[in-house]
Amino acid sequence: MTHTTLHEHPEQIFAALSDETRLRILMLLESEHRLCVCHLQALLDKPQSTISRHISMLMENQLLSQTHKGTSNLYALNERTPLWVREIFRLSRINWSLSNDGFRMLKQARALYQENIELLQDTPQNNGNIIQKSGDTTPSNKVFNVLFLCVANSARSILAEALLNRWGQGR
Question: Which domain holds residue 22?
Answer without folding.
Answer: 3-124
